[in-house]
Amino acid sequence: MIISKTPFRVSLFGGSTDYESYYSKYGSLLVGFTIDKYCYTMVRKTPQILGYKTRVSYSKVEVVNDNSTIEHNGVRGVLEYLKIKYGVEIAHISDIPSQTGTGSSSSFIVGLLNAFYTIQNKKPTKKQLAQEAIYIERKLLNESGGIQDQIWSAYGGFNSIDISKTGDFQVKPLPVSSEFIEDFFSRCVLIYMGKTRKSYKIAKSNDRNNKYKENIQKIAHKGYKGFLDQDIDSIAALLDQSWEEKKRVSDLVSSDEIDSRYNELKQNGVIGGKLLGSGGSGFMFGILGDGVTKSDFKKKYRSNFLDFTVSLNGSEIING
């Protein structure tokens, strides 16, 4: 049995500019990191004695005799892409709920690709994993969305991502000190909004309004400079600005409930933040003001507070 471990991500700046309709005209810059919360994917060839061909276990269980009839789009897409006709058993578990804006769908596909390549005694590069996951989701399955999630899942780390007009990309670690990283994450919080959402409808609605995305991209460059200057307060203020621009892209990004919750977080010490992913619900990321005690903030939000730190590695094989 092969087990892959693939991180989820927090996208800080540049979200929505990683859609082909935008970057193919203007390019894109994204800034963010992966967290120490993971998608675990277990894969093996089905033993003949079990009496079935393929079994897929996630929020439901599918048992099929033809891989092309699998309902789970991601699984079916990976098997089709790799031309896998033989029987397999696939199981998926996660550290956090899916459909919460942390790139879970792409983490799953990257991890599944990585596991199958390991079964085939192949070692794909990080770029190969990202590019193939992008192709499967955006071309083969024709799902709406950007291309950053696949890149974060494959590479991991605390990085900037430059996307050219051709869709090629460069991933570079942010040039910041270890002291800054420690200080930055001591002030970062993730709060679960308590709901999941079907991201494909929201993602599709995000694929428009380039004029607002141009503002998001300008702020991303300022955010990148904020990291170069190692200025956490400036980064927080820019996150707040970027979130306001993101809400202009689509009416589905936010809601009265989300806006109210964000204002509540600001009253309790957050000086800048955003909802992760395409919007709708999921996790809210925030940066605490200097002097605000993280432990006190955690007590206020109890089970909705997610402890985390940066994960420096992308998808890994941990057994096999």
3D structure, described in words:
With 320 residues, this protein is α+β, with helices and mostly antiparallel strands. The chain folds into two domains: 173 residues, Ribosomal Protein S5, domain 2 (2-Layer Sandwich); 127 residues, 2-Layer Sandwich (Alpha-Beta Plaits), CATH 3.30.70.890. Helix content is 40%, strand content 24%. It has eleven helices and eleven strands. The strands form two sheets. Strands 1, 2, 3, 4, 5, 6, 7 and 11 form an eight-stranded mixed sheet that branches. A three-stranded antiparallel sheet has the order 8-10-9. Helix 8 packs antiparallel against helix 9. The longest helix is centred in the C-terminal third of the chain and has 19 residues. It is globular, with a radius of gyration of 19 Å.
